[in-house]
Design goal:
Elements (H helix, E strand, L loop, with lengths): L1 H21 L1 H24 L5 H18 L6 H28 L12 H18 L1 H8 L8 H29 L19 H18 L11 H13 L2 H12 L3 H9 L10
Helix pairs in contact: 1-2, 1-5, 2-3, 2-5, 3-4, 3-5, 4-7, 7-8, 8-9
Length: about 280
Amino acid sequence: MPRLIAALLLASLMIAIGWLAGGAALAICAAVSMGVNWAVFVPSNALKTERYYDLTGGLTYLTLLAVGLTLSADIGAREAIVTAMVAVWAIRLSSFLFRRIRRDGKDGRFDAIKVSWSRFLIAWTLQGMWCFLTALGALILLTSPTPEGLTLVDLVGFAIWGVGFAIEVVADRQKSAFRARPESEGRWIDEGLWSTSRHPNYFGEIMLWTGIFVVGAGVFQGWQWLGVLSPLFVTLLLTKVSGLPMLEQRADERWGDDPAYRAYKVETPVLIPTLRR
């Protein structure tokens, strides 16, 4: 029961943030984000499977874009480009993660979570939060009138997004190729972008959402500046909650006694890419 209450409180908080940042339109988006994830939670909990978790995340982003476009006062070049950026990212990442879980059969992060319906509900609720808050900057742009014509700030934001997206895609492909090689069995990846950062894909994700916020920073007014929650929430979740802490712990448990892995950790930053000496 406490976790159910927590889930309802988190949903209420998202709706309140949406109302402050963009009125009824964004409050509706927040409710939709939670609703999509809770709807898929029901059959997923009955089957005790996380198979459709990441795919639902992508569906949530696309649904939010559709709702945002429907409620939009005007769609100019800025809004169209941001919509395309979020859609491309969501389709690419969710399909990549879905293929990975089909290949692996499960996601180890959920082993201890899915056995409890209340803990599993919190996981789906957090995904609803993730989708709404990360897309918040884009949704503010979609549902609020903005000045016509692109500016230098827009171009800077687009460039930051492009670099971040490229880093995430390349990092994911390098890791997939590494795991596909028989000689990589039981090893950690330390080549390509992974030789400059232990989690370059996460760095790319933080960077691309920062790029979308930069686009919005050129036109945000008043409470619309809540759009900064997008890169802040992504950074917090990936570095303090469900990203780096879990993966670093699993890696330490698996290779922590290996001197070569300990050397890799010393030489390679956890997040921000840096060339080795």
